[in-house]
Design a protein that fits this description.
The protein has two domains: about 20-150, NAD(P)-binding Rossmann-like Domain (Rossmann fold); about 150-310 and about 335-360, Dihydrodipicolinate Reductase, domain 2, CATH 3.30.360.10. Helices cover about 35% and strands about 25% of the residues. It has helices at about 5-10, 35-50, 65-75, 80-85, 105-115, 130-140, 155-165, 185-190, 200, 205-225, 315-330, 340-350; strands at about 30-35, 55-60, 75-80, 95-100, 120, 145-150, 175-185, 230-235, 250-255, 260-265, 270-280, 280-285, 295-300, 305-310, 360. The strands form two sheets. Strands 14-13-12-11-7-10-9-8-15 form a nine-stranded mixed beta sheet. The chain has a six-stranded parallel beta sheet with strand order 3-2-1-4-5-6, sandwiched between helices. A hairpin with a 3-residue loop joins strand 9 (about 250-255) and strand 10. It is globular, with a radius of gyration of 20 Å.
């Protein structure tokens, strides 16, 4: 492959390849459950900028907190979690976005499913594999769509990278290296009592659950394959991380066809994220990656030729919400599904067991992307 052929690979791409030629008609009204900083600073603004979505209801455990957030964000109504479960204002929204602490996802999704509302649920799905499976069962029993909010899967750079990998642009994949880290207590939330460091609310751990899942899931998406075994090393020593095993974590995953992936994550390290895929004929790199506040850059190298493809700056959350709304409005299946998310939960559980030997992962059923 010469440089002109490589350029052709990079130039031929539709940013929203998931969208029909004729855009969906209509608007999906959301109830957002949870009014933390991610909803206030990321999700709600993304929906406000969308042509396919609007937020009409905010939900929090305390009604006053929900009402105050609704006033601040210009949302029509704020209600309590108890009112939400009782069906209050159910006629004011069409779908539910779940962004609560992990261990509260199940009760919220069960309530949404009982109200016959499609669900967009933040990752990780829940605080344990069993609760994640119960979440899927609730939506299946009610016959409502469930999508897990892996925003990287609708990021244009990641979707382009997946096309290139699947087209053989770097040959057969041999290895993947991925990392994500941030300084949680310094840059995000200085409170050591926050839910991300509370096993009763967050589940298994802190760094793998919240950050390591990004390179893991993105690798699954790029390869269209799931891990068969993992092994890991974990470290926690500093103030604030006494109750979690993974202030820092490193783990290796074995994928089919001899593909090995090594990942690392930390809630107490410089903010950075990248993913590199090495093949028999070249390599592909996403750097920076994973953080919505950074633009994505994609570089492909093959046979001594390198090309970097630039992408217009996009809001990953807006892309994700638009995709979900488009699928609902056109009555097409959503992806990633709950079953897809459960595979990550199994991997996270295995990684945080701290096994030094390969830990097998239950054989998952792959679904169409």
């Amino acid at each position: 492959m010469n440089s002109s052929t490589l350029a052709a690979y990079l130039d031929d791409f539709d940013r929203r390849d998931w969208q029909e030629a004729t855009p969906a008609d209509g608007t999906v009204r959301f109830a957002m459950v949870g009014v933390g900083w991610w909803v206030r600073e990321q999700a709600a603004p993304a929906v406000a900028a969308s042509d396919l979505c609007e937020t009409t209801v905010l939900v929090s455990r305390e009604r006053e907190k929900a009402a105050n957030a609704a006033d601040a964000l210009g949302v029509e109504r704020g209600i309590s979690a108890a009112e939400f479960r009782d069906g209050v204002a159910a006629d004011a929204y069409d779908a539910v976005y779940v962004c609560t602490p992990n261990a509260a996802h199940l009760e919220t999704v069960e309530a949404a499913a009982a109200l016959d509302k499609p669900v967009l649920c933040e990752k990780p799905m829940e605080a344990s594999v069993e609760r994640a499976e119960a979440l899927v069962d609730a939506c299946d029993a009610a016959g409502v769509p469930l999508m897990v909010a892996y925003r990287m899967q609708t990021d244009p750079a990641v979707r382009r990278a997946r096309e290139l990998v699947q087209a053989g642009a770097i040959g057969d994949v041999a290895a993947v290296h991925g990392h994500m880290s941030q300084r949680l207590l310094r840059d995000i939330n200085p409170n050591p009592e926050q839910w991300r460091l509370n096993p009763d609310l967050a589940g298994f751990g802190a760094s793998v659950t919240d950050l390591g899942v990004y390179p893991l899931n993105t690798t699954r998406f790029l390869l269209d394959a799931d891990p068969r075994a993992v092994q890991s090393m974990l470290y926690s020593a500093h103030d604030g991380f006494e109750d979690v095993p993974d202030e820092r974590a490193a783990f290796t995953a074995r994928f089919p066809d001899g593909v090995f992936a090594s990942f690392s994550a930390s809630q107490r390290a410089y903010e950075t994220g990248f993913l590199r895929v090495v093949g028999t004929e070249g390599e592909l790199e996403l750097d920076p990656a994973f953080f919505n506040r950074n633009g994505s850059a994609l570089t492909v190298t093959r046979e001594g030729q390198s090309a970097e493809i630039g992408f217009e700056s996009v809001d990953q959350m807006e892309e994700e919400f638009d995709y979900f709304a488009d699928r609902l409005l056109t009555d097409r299946p959503v992806y990633p599904t709950g079953e897809h998310g459960v595979v990550d939960m199994r991997v996270i559980e295995a990684v945080l067991d701290g096994e030094t030997d390969a830990h097998p992962i239950a054989e998952p059923a792959l679904t169409s992307r």
